[in-house]
Amino acid sequence: MPGHTYFANNLPKKEHWRAYREFRENTIFLDIETTGLSQNYDEITMIGVHGSDGTKVFINGIDLEDFPQALKGCKVIVTLNGARFDLPFIEQHLPGINFDQLHIDLLYPLRRLGLTGGPKRIETKLGLSRSGETTGLSGFDAVQLWYQYKRGS
Fold first, then answer.
1. What is the pTM assigned to this prediction?
2. Which domain holds residue 56?
3. pLDDT, tens digit, for every residue of 93-109?
4. How do residues 112-122 score in pLDDT, each as one tens digit?
5. How many structural domains compose the chain?
6. What distances in angstroms separate CA 66 from CA 12, 69, 70, 94, 110, one per listed residue?
């Protein structure tokens, strides 16, 4: 049993962050975009992954089925609201995926620090800025852009 699996199974989920330093080289930061919030009716449009080997985006209809490759050697997954949204959505739409990694969902420690709301609100409170192309965009914009892409734009 790999070391990360032992910790994933035995550390309380809210304590998974404590193992980050040990496994940081085998950590990915993950976010998904979908056509909506329902796992039963909506679909994943893309999965973005950033790790020590760079950033990769897996796009529905192009290479979404290659996403499991991003989990090879991964020992820690970091998300924002991934416990309730991203990981269950992926498991529903890409059968056979087994998330046995440590999972650090930043939503909960951020809440304990008084930082609530969506990514844009938290980023603003922390003084982080987005690129010019993405400033002001929301999750709803991502859905609209997806449908524009599907229509050939």
1. 0.92
2. 3-114
3. 999 998 999 999 999 99
4. 999 998 888 89
5. 1
6. 30, 6, 8, 10, 31
Residue 140 in contact with residue 48, Cβ under 8 Å?
Answer: no
Lookup: tokens for 103: 């999972």
Q: Would you give the DSSP letter of residue 6?
A: H
At 149, the amino acid letter reads Y
Contact present, 70 and 58 (Cβ < 8 Å):
yes
Residue 33's domain is classified under what CATH number? Answer: 3.30.420.10
The CA-atom distances, in angstroms, between 70 and each of 17, 35, 48, 108, 125 are 20, 22, 10, 25, 31
Token pair of 82, please? Answer: 């991934």
3-class secondary-structure state, position 109: helix
Residue with tokens 């990694």: 101
